[in-house]
Fold these 3 entries.
Entry 1:
Amino acid sequence: MKVAHIEVPGLRIMKTVLAVFIVMIIGTFSQGLLRPYEMAIVAVLAVQGDVVRSIHEIHNRISATVIGGIIGTIAMCIIYITKSNIATIMLIPIGVFLILYFCSKLINKNEYILIACYVFLAITLDEVPEISWIYPIRVMANTIVASIVAMLVNLYNPRRKRRIRIEKEK
């Protein structure tokens, strides 16, 4: 008779589930200000195998979110004011170009590109009932709140005997 061996979930799995649970609670009770769906995705992506990588990932995610959010907000305002399909068709590629150029050439942070483009496109292309400055803030807040929750959850390690020393990468 064969005995099946079922492995106990690791700490990273449990931390990820806990981070998703917490952001779901925050998002659900935020009275529509935050979106649990978006926050859960960010929480899953933000919990990394170790704290240093997690903090690095969260820093990148928040920085990229702000870049995409600023460019997206400017483009969204222009699109909203002009109410023109031509403006939309022109501004979306221009915004993507600005993000690509800024991240890769001006600040040399290629790791920001994907998230910044995602946030930019979420702001400019999402069909939202209220087009205002509140929507870009909501998109950025989802990422920032979920990233902070994921980082705080990831800091907990019951096996750790000493304090964490976080050093900035060179």
Entry 2:
Amino acid sequence: MARALLEVRGVVKRFGGFRALNGVSFGVREGERFGLIGPNGSGKTTLINCVSGALRNDAGTILFRGRDLGPLPAYRRTRLGIARSFQIPRPFASMTVAANLCIPLEYAAHARSRGADVAAEAREILRLIGLEAKADVRTGGLTQIEMRKLELARAMAAKPSLLISDEAMAGLSSGEVDEILDLLRRLNGQGITVIMIEHIMRAVMSFSERIVVLDAGEKIAEGTPGEIAGNKDVERAYLGE
């Protein structure tokens, strides 16, 4: 069995008197395709913000390769190998697609890119993502799916060992969803561990080897896609009594 890359142990996050996360625990194995799902307001984004460093958890521990992430700011977590994409892509609109990758290559991953040809690395990531032909185009001219691919490319420019894909398929057509699924599988095939947060059930079920389900800030289920699909607690969380 592969070792745990990420360990979430009893994580609690409060906003005033509201507990957005209440003792959430799970592990993600090296090289795993991992799904994180739950109805709106279940705590998924809050949890990922705690993992990435955008928020600090109030209790519990988050470990990456056995190292406690608690005292580390977001940029240092990125340099350790944790990268995320965002639900709403916000590229630098005045810059070309390739230039949008050069910034994270130079700053977020500079310790691992020292002496490298940043422009060449940017082109290689775009080739992998399928945007090489758009390298010199300003981002305002991209289609919606191209924007989603660019968002993933920007995350990849940080050279992660763990990629958190936060609703990369929202608003896409069925065929476009399949394109993003294929892309994430190829990235995983290169050894990158992927956590997928997604509301499109067919996508997360076909992609994930294991899934954790949150509801109202608590973990209510964990298992294979088949086990999750047949779980009554998950059904109640999504459909009600």
Entry 3:
Amino acid sequence: MNDPDAIEVNFDGLVGPTHNYAGLALGNTASTRHRGATSSPRHAALEALAKMKMLMDLGVQQAVLPPQDRPDVSLLRRLGFAGSDSDVLAAARRDALRLLAAAASASSMWAANAGTVSPSADSGDGRLHLTPANLLHNLHRAIEAPTTTAAFRAIFHDESLFAVHDPLPAAHALCDEGAANHTRLCNQHGSAGIELFVYDRLGIDDADAPATRFPRRQTREACEAVVRCHRLDPARTVFARQNPDAIDAGVFHNDVIAVGHRNVLLLHARAFVDQGTVIDELRRRFTATCGGELHVIQIGDDEIGVEEAVRSYLFNSQLVTLPDGSMAIIAPSECGETPRARAVFERITAGGPIRSFRLVNVRQSMRNGGGPACLRLRVVMTARERAAAHQGVFLTDTLYAALTGWVNRHYREELNPEELADPRLLEESRAALDQLAEILGLGRLYAFQH
């Protein structure tokens, strides 16, 4: 199968009205470093939209995923808080401030964790497969799965072309962090590729695993389950284990230390356990499946150490194909302010498959530990699949103008963590989401709308 009209669409998460710095994700060093700081939901949302518009203007197709209803009052009710919505929020603020913070998190903005996607060219039944991530490791993320599943099914609604699976069962052995630990490599988007799944622990029996300072979030069993659900050919899948030393340096997902696109894999030399063997297997399977050469670009400690790469988010960049066929890297502006990171980009774009790099300002997201790649979910789609998907989420100049106007009308300029219990914030957020569902044509996506 080779569909020349297949392209990679970036589905970016819209930043929600409750974007704040609660520092909930242990192991995400930027998140914990900015815990308690004042955020700007409006600036965060506009920065993310500006990134989408920049990519759209470059000729990269963009779409959006809606944010979630936050604070999640239903979660707090299930945890024993009672009364009106304002009573529930006040009681949670008084008795369980961290639970309130989890219920109010806008973390669904990082769409790389929304799920894992396998294109129709790779699946055994010729459909595009999506599995929403259960994100079990962190409470503030585990509550996202139901709305993410509903959004996927509203967008990818034609079951003859799309298979939207349920999230994997909510079990410690099946922790799944989505596409942040998944990379697809190919020559052309519409032809068969190989899929790389990265894990950092075994879910059933991992007694001999090295101890880490920070948590290990993704299990191999979860990766293997997604492979089966997506009907992938085992001969075209590769599993790699995250380097525990990298985890301790703040690499909580693989997309913090590696990024791949088409026939290019850019990664740090300390990304995986037994990295030489992993790369050899990737190259062998790539040649057997795709033909041609897999370009592996390894960056060593002599160019930039893991800790500095994490601070600058060098590897949390987006690799994209431009309309002229050249490949560009979209990096956070922090890389331009980090001499060693900038030097890496200048070297790798001086020759080889990546021809240029561009810097983008997503500072509000970066302070919470999410760079450009965290904000997007890559979905390879044929022309027929794009036509069959819900059209209201595909970014156009008109939709961009509508969304920026919507943000400016509904979002607060500043938000402090102690304001998460403000019942007016809940009212403002729901009014915004109610209008957004109308703008995107998604109907009654949220429970409060019923």
